[in-house]
Write a structure and sequence with these properties.
Elements: E1 2-6, E2 9-12, E3 17-24, E4 32-38, E5 45-50, E6 57-59, E7 67-72, E8 77-82, E9 91-98, E10 110-111, E11 117-122
Parallel strand pairs: 2-11
Antiparallel strand pairs: 1-3, 3-8, 4-5, 4-9, 5-6, 7-8, 9-10, 9-11
């Protein structure tokens, strides 16, 4: 499975962006997918996760109410709608497939990491 994240860019505080994570290769719509982000000098942190069915979602406290994760299995794509962006949301955003464990928020439960897309929020 190969994942391609896209949709990042430069936006002013309060603005919105929609990230996409497209899967290719030996794809399966039965994978749970997560979004993580990593700012310079900081560890990679969980942002949001979604079950393969779309029926279960999980969010970091820092993005609850502002970000929405969704998926279109017909297109093998997972989305992250980001609203009310803040400068502290600036990071490289990665998507990955959850391969083990129970928790959506643990990075070591994931594999097939995409290459990341840069999100920069100016104040």
């Amino acid at each position: 499975v190969q994942l391609q994240a896209s949709g990042g860019g430069l936006v002013q505080a309060g603005g919105s962006l929609r990230l996409s994570c497209a899967a290719s290769g030996r794809t399966s719509s039965t994978h749970d997918v997560g979004w993580f982000r990593q700012a310079p000098g900081k560890v990679r942190e969980f942002v949001a996760g979604i079950a393969w069915s779309g029926g279960v979602t999980s969010y970091a406290d820092s993005v609850k109410g502002r970000f929405t994760i969704s998926r279109d299995n017909a297109k093998n794509t997972v989305y992250l709608q980001m609203n009310s962006l803040k400068p502290e949301d600036t990071a490289v955003y990665y998507c990955a497939v959850r391969r083990s464990g129970v928790s959506y928020s643990v990075a070591s439960n994931y594999g097939y990491w995409g290459q990341g897309t840069q999100v920069t929020v100016s104040s």
